[in-house]
Each structure stands twice: as C-alpha cells, then as structure tokens.
C-alpha cells in the first residue's frame, strides 16, 4: 500500500466481495464436477451418448439429470416370486419359439420386456420406445445400448435380419429382461 493510504470500509467491502466471488466460483466448479462424476457413474456409456447427441456436455447432463429426476418420482415395485415365475415361464415359451420362428420370437421378446416394465411400475406404452429407453438408461445403464440394438432388429420392417442378428437380439433382450425382473437378485 502506498504510504499515507488508509484502508477504507469500501476497500474492505470490495476485498470481501472479491473473496466471496472467488469462493462461490470455486464451489460452483466443484459442484458441477461432482454432478458430472455422479452422472458418468450412474449412466455409464449412456453419459457419452447423451453428450454427443446434445452436442454439449451441459445440455447432455441436463437431459440425463431430467431423466434421473423423472425416474425418482416413479414407484417401481418388485414383482415377487409369483410374478417373476410367471414372466420366466413366458420368456421360456418365447425362447422355445425362436427355433421355429425367430422373427416373431424377437418381436414377442420386445413386447414381454415392455410388459415387465409396466408391471414393475414404469409408465411405458408399447408404442413409446424412446420413453422406455430413457427409463432403462436410468435403472439399467449398462444394458440400454443392447436394448437399442435388440429393438432395432425387432423392428426390422424389411424382414432382412439374419438369424444371427435375431439371436443377438434375443440375447440382448434376455439380459435386460432378467435385470428388469431382478432375476439375479432372486437367485442369490
């Protein structure tokens, strides 16, 4: 400080304001980083997809954050042993049908996944694929890309999917189906 210069109340206020702004900026950056890390862990590969689809990290994170908040308002319920058994029997019937009619078995597998989601409490309709993907991405982030692949094969309008592609769709549907029904947890 130059000689003879006294610190005024205004100088102190400006100094505290600068400290406060720096502190708030640092806190905001830390909060944003934590949010990004949380969303990255929660959504896995879906995080990168959302950021790419939105063309920007902040917009991609806002989309994922909104999905997560919608999902938190849902009342997802377990099916219980009887419900899981009924769906397991239905799945076994679909899987057995694959040998004779792979195309319709894959279509039925897609329908069965949607039905299982509805029974658990997800507000999905058969026609709203995007909504199903969003809910699956929140609760089953490691399986959502498989679901997209399987559904694309199931919706093959030209009927040109090979038997190998149809088999792959069934494998993807089965992994998601078991996860939605919590079959692994029931076996433990």
Mean pLDDT equals: 85
Oligomer: single chain
Share of residues in strands: under 5%
**Uncertain runs:** 184-188
- Count every helix, treating DSSP H or I runs of 4 or more residues as helices: 9
Order of helices and strands: HHHHHHHHH
Content-based structural category: mainly alpha
- Biggest sheet, in brief? none
Tally the beta strands. Answer: 0
Cα-based radius of gyration, to the nearest Å: 25 Å
Question: Your description of this structure?
Answer:
By secondary structure, this protein is mainly alpha-helical. It folds into two domains: 64 residues; 108 residues, no CATH class. It has nine helices and no strands. It is elongated and about 95 Å long. The N and C termini lie far apart (71 Å). 26% of the residues are buried. The C terminus is likely disordered.
Kindly summarize this structure in a few lines.
This protein has 188 residues and is an all-alpha fold. It has 9 helices and no strands.
Short key terms for the protein model shown above:
elongated; 9 helices; 2 domains; 188 residues; mainly alpha
């Amino acid at each position: 400080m130059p000689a003879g210069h006294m610190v005024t109340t205004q100088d102190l206020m400006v100094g505290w304001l600068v400290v406060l702004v720096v502190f708030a900026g640092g806190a905001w950056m830390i909060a944003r980083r934590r949010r990004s890390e949380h969303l990255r862990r929660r959504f896995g590969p879906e995080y990168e997809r959302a950021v790419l689809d939105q063309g920007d990290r902040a917009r991609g994170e806002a989309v994922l954050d909104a999905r997560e908040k919608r999902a938190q308002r849902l009342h997802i319920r377990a099916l219980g042993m009887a419900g899981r058994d009924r769906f397991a029997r239905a799945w076994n019937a679909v899987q057995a049908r694959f040998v004779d009619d792979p195309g319709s078995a894959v279509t039925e597998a897609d329908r069965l996944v949607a039905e299982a989601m509805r029974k658990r409490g997800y507000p999905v309709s058969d026609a709203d694929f995007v909504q199903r993907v969003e809910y699956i991405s929140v609760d089953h982030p490691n399986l959502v890309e498989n679901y997209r692949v399987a559904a694309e094969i199931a919706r093959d309008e030209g009927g040109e999917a090979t038997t190998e592609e149809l088999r792959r769709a069934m494998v993807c549907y089965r992994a998601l189906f078991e996860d939605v029904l919590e079959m692994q947890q029931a076996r433990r």
